[in-house]
Amino acid sequence: MSIPDLPKNTTLEGRSVLITGSNVGLGYSAALLSLQLGASPVYLAVRTPAKGDKARETLLADPVVKKKNPKAIVKVYQLDMSTWDGVTSFASKFIADRKAAGEGLDVAILNAGVANMDFELAPTGNEVVIQVNHFSTALLSLLLLPLLESSTTPEHTARLEVVTSGSHTRVQSLKACPPDDYNYLASLNDKKTFTTMDRYGLSKLLIIFFLRELSARVSSDKVIINNVCPGMIKTELARGVPWYAQPVLWVWYATSANPVEKGAACYVHAVAAVGKESHGLWYHKMKLTPYADIVTNQESEKLQSRIWNETMEALDKAVPGIGPDI
Length: 326
Hints:
Elements: E1 17-20, H1 25-36, E2 42-46, H2 49-61, H3 63-68, E3 74-78, H4 84-101, E4 107-110, H5 128-151, E5 158-163, H6 184-187, H7 196-217, E6 223-229, H8 246-256, H9 260-272, E7 282-284, E8 287-288, H10 293-296, H11 300-318
Parallel strand pairs: 1-2, 1-4, 2-3, 4-5, 5-6, 6-7
Antiparallel strand pairs: 7-8
Helix pairs in contact: 1-9, 4-5, 5-7, 7-11
């Protein structure tokens, strides 16, 4: 399925935009498109600052940016999503800088993510895919929320967009609410629970449950929260795929993948071309799309509450006091 063009009147003129994981791939392309549509400042949150600095130079040298947005500002921040301190240190500096400059934040696009072929624990003790794609994304959402809320004006409601995946619809390991006698999220740190084909989709399913609960607790008058999936895109997300699987991936890319520019347009569409009607919802290739059955069926309310509570318990241990006002 191809991705349509953005509406012709789409603009981010004068909007400040934060994009995580933005020195390569979809994040970089989303930053470029945002600048081309008038956004400034654009903040690149990246794991390696030197790579972010190089991306900044390339973005500002783009002919369209130079012509249409010649005074654009791009700033680079370090963000390590594999550790609690990496997230909190970024948020502290970023928010302090905005307050010192008397600035807000109009749009946050949380794009950073990993897809591992092998089991690995993050420095936090959590399995790394769950840590980055779920826990750290949830934590960063909560840390940015007050800044986003304070940036909303009568003319523009701040946006929080999280990149999820259609793979959440194919998860086999979570079909019902787990028994109450153990911590489900903690159990995912056991290597026996890890399967390559399931874990990435599971991490996205977990963050969808979290975002749906967060959306129910935060009014769309304060911040519009949604999530997107651009489908298969030609990016570096699968750079960890072993050599023997590369031919299959190349064929998949050649027959199914859209160019990265189209994926970036999906990101921008959900923060610039739709409004409060998108709150708590999922856009796949720019189209409002139903979640997987497990997200909305009779079991979902209990399961969503379970994932929210276990997530908040883990976040409160990492950052005491993170949740009482939500």
